[in-house]
Amino acid sequence: MKQKPNLSFWQLWNLSFGFFGVQIAYALQSANISRIFATLGADPHNLSYFWILPPLMGIVVQPIVGSLSDMTWTRFGRRIPYLFIGAAMAVLVMCLLPNAGSLGMAVSTAMVFGLVSLMFLDTSINMAMQPFKMLVGDMVNEKQKTLAYSIQSFLCNAGSIAGYVFPFFFTFIGISNQAPSGVVPDSVVYSFYIGAAILILCVFYTTAKVKEMPPKEYAEYHSVKNVEENSKANLFTLLKNAPSTFWKVALVQFFSWFAFMYMWTYTNGTIAANCWGVDMLSHDATMTEGYQEAGNWVGILFAVQAIGSVLWAMVLPQFKNAKLAYAFSLVLGAIGFILAAFIHDQYVMFVPFLLIGCAWAAMLAMPFTLVTNALEGYGHMGTYLGLFNGSICIPQIIAAAIGGLVLQLVGSIQSNMMIVAGVSLILGALSVSIIKLHHSATKE
Fold it and tell me: Does residue 121 have a pLDDT over 90?
């Protein structure tokens, strides 16, 4: 098998640059979905149910995109066509979702419109996001994968920062952060519009700069005798034959993404109650000025988390033991979640979110490095990475499905859900111990 050549820094950068725009869309969704549906009239105990759709679409869409792209060979490449179609869909839906309450519909109809828009938004984001992971697996050699995923992590966090601060920024320059009952403020609506424009521009850049390997060249570099024949495989057979690293990293992923689902769902309520004194158990909590201000501040805190992730991503390579780096990062994130439940100053809240960013940095870079290294020589890289996305989606679906029940068990206090998230990350850190590091391209 031929060894893939080293790529220059800018070639690695171009492979992932479109991720910046995709992540802006994802950040806007993560920071504002609870706020949007709460504004439309959703009960706090039902908020987690709205979060079932994003990971549900991910677990359906990403394996399909991975499998289809493994069998796709066009003049534009095998992964890039799916990236471009997904981005185009995302742009359209990003212009519709924040207007769910502004089209003269009844509350129930607006809620359904918002749900359908959310479903299509996450479908398109997943369709656009998955090709970037597969491009690195296809085109980058084992020696450079850590750097490639680190660049992807940097662009991911940079896009997150932009998406998170947009509502705060637009409010700062004078765009209204208040709106009539059931209507999403203009500061959020404009954020989605600008995010959509940046997304499509970034994707245009990547599609123009990246040239994928043709089938014959791909086969030479990936030890696959007949790419088209090899691409036709049963998903269950692939899972059965997956390397053990695939499953062990997936267990760590379960506890990690379970925790972050509760952060995305309940940070709005936590910050409103702890830092703005909003009574989140009252019927009109989301109509208060404090709740909308807290919603903007959540974007700032998520941006702080992304900054913490960028900084910690530079520290991670200094660890000689990758498992220690992974576990320690998750423990720091767990401490951050637990601290967030007890802090009542909006600025001191930066500390726990910087710590949460350490866990996020490890979650972005390490799982895919470990898994793609273990998959060298297996073929079906896109399909396997699509299936591995289940380790991200399934825990979120479970967390969202039981979120209302867990919230009741912790006294309907949304800040207590941050403690639940912290405990989950600690379990994830403990699970790192069972991972066996893969140092060669041989099957386990």
Answer: no
